[in-house]
């Protein structure tokens, strides 16, 4: 079967749009933690359907803004998806944001593709909240969203975070 580059791109975009966000963690009688892409963050109807009340945008230059009546809490972090970027500097702030807001509704953490930056934040959250080592948190996130694949530099920082949390004993 021969398909053009354009057709291949369309197939990829259709798949990508259909898989724009996944639920990673459920909190009994509270909100859920979602991991997704910029496409997910722009789907207002989907955000409302999932009771998303808070969003973490961890990407460069999205210019994404929400009406406060829709998303009362929006944390924006301009972060690069390069191995040398210090994503660990944002772990505590993002974890606190998720903990605070998940009591009032669901939380979406997104970057451009929902693969590396946002996945790293979600993995760090799972590590701290559940006292899971990096491998267990990664496997859990990956089981819920197959695209999860932090870059090598972020994986190293998650290992350092594991050490900081004393989860490697």
TrEMBL record:
Protein name as it appears in the record: protein-tyrosine-phosphatase
Single GO MF descriptor: MAP kinase tyrosine phosphatase activity
Keyword Transmembrane in annotation: no
Tyrosine-protein phosphatase domain location: 25-167
PANTHER family linked to this entry: DUAL SPECIFICITY PROTEIN PHOSPHATASE, DUAL SPECIFICITY PROTEIN PHOSPHATASE MPK3
InterPro entries: Dual-sp_phosphatase_cat-dom (IPR000340), Prot-tyrosine_phosphatase-like (IPR029021), Tyr_Pase_AS (IPR016130), Tyr_Pase_dom (IPR000387), TYR_PHOSPHATASE_DUAL_dom (IPR020422)
Domain of life where this protein originates: Eukaryota
Class of the enzyme per the UniProt entry, highest EC level: hydrolase
Family matches, as SMART domains: DSPc
Domain Tyrosine specific protein phosphatases: 89-145
Protein keywords: Hydrolase, Protein phosphatase
GO terms, biological process: negative regulation of MAPK cascade
